[in-house]
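Hello,

Following up on my earlier ticket. Below are the two sequence lines again, exactly as submitted.
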Amino acid sequence: MFAVEDLSAAYGPVKALNGVSFTASRGQVTAVLGANGAGKTTLLRTVSGLVRSTGGSVTLNGKDITRTATEKLTSYGLSHVPEGRGVIAELTVVENLRLGGLHRATGSEPMPIERIFELFPRLGERREATAHMLSGGERQMLVIGRALMARPTVLLLDEPSLGLAPRVVAQIFDLLRGLVQTEELTVVLVEQNARSALSIADHGVVLNLGKVVASAPAAELAADEQLRHAYLGF
Amino acid sequence: MQQFLDTTLGGLVLGAVYAAFALALCLIWRSTRIVNFAQAAMAMVTTYIALSLINVDVPYWVAFLAAIAAGFVLGAVIERVIIRPVEGKAELNAVILTLGLFMVLHGLTAITFGVQHRGFPAPVSTSAISVGDTSIGITPFGILTIVVVAVVMAGLVVLFRFTDLGLRMRASAFNGEVSRLLGVRVGRMLTLGWALAAAVGAVAGMLIAGGDLVNPAFMDPFVIYGFVAAVLGGLDSPIGSVIGGLILGLSLSYVTGYVGEHLAPLVALGILMLVLLVRPSGLFAAAAARRV
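Thanks for your patience. The regenerated structure is below:
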């Protein structure tokens, strides 16, 4: 169980997160939705220690990981795929994947790179290409594959659909849904593309101006016309 | 023919020396994306440390290793104390700091050791090798220089291309935030990058000083020539740095041998301008990667 409790963060005098709470269960996708500036990316960056929290807590399987050094989180089983498809452009596909496997969850077995190529055959075909040669969809596959190399139990994904064609988004989300089931991952999916995100999510959390304005099963959120019009844009 | 052979061999040795220095610049660039203008001064300091040891009868090779160790520590301390506070800020801040450091190290060395020229020994002969009755334009120390630079280059290629540590160092330099998210201790990698670069710089200093005279300014020309060699080969590429050094060494040797010594700095400047105009990333740099 991954739980965020009353988490707050600020950029100088501006409060970016204001007492955000939610839980995410194993084998489920929790979508964090909201408009630009709602605090979605800040939420993930605060969980990962890239932004310092000003209050609240984050727990993973009962262990308090609030303010844990960013570098240590992979050893606790938490992987964060940042916004903007954070491949290391100068490294090859294989090097990016190798890098992902260097700091795994404590006690976990190394993930064979070939397993990633089974999940994403396109990456296997481009294994020696440098990452800057990849298409947007391939880069997204690479960062997800690289995160999986660390054998996470919790995967934080920030806007994986950003800038991708709808067909590629559907492909990535299908893969993600499959991974959640086969790897028993807890996925926290931050998305502006609320319709697509809710289609694969089990639970949804809607943020507005740094606060949770709704938290409910994904199907319920998708059916709430008023909420969709007010916060989700569809 | 004899002159051509002598000039070529001399150029190879000179090129190996430039290459050693360019390798140090390349290492810091690879690990922190900073051009370190204090590299020559750091190498000068470690050479003086070695000279001090040799002067109290410490064997040459022990002093050589001590200079490398001193360089390693000096590089690490400089990164942690001077460079770290400006990392992540405007790139020019760190560059200006390295220029300041260049002057500080110069001054401190002059105060500590004096400004007079001192002889620096070589571990092997610095007299030209003779084949029959003819002496050829290379010395045993010149051959040693080429071998040492080749070994250092090979070691760096193995480190960066085939080891996990090298992969962590490259990743930290290219994208610190993503590397942290992947569990890499980026700060430690940056310190290690500076330490390794200063150790390689110490090797360069010892090779440049061998069988010659040293004073606090003896490494200064290598700021320019080492930089030209690194840019020529590609600041990002250890192999490129070495080949850039060799091309520069040979070019300057031919100019000096056939035209005149006074033209050498001008030719170096011309090469630098040509590379920056035609192929700014250097002859052996990988294709420029877009930040994504």
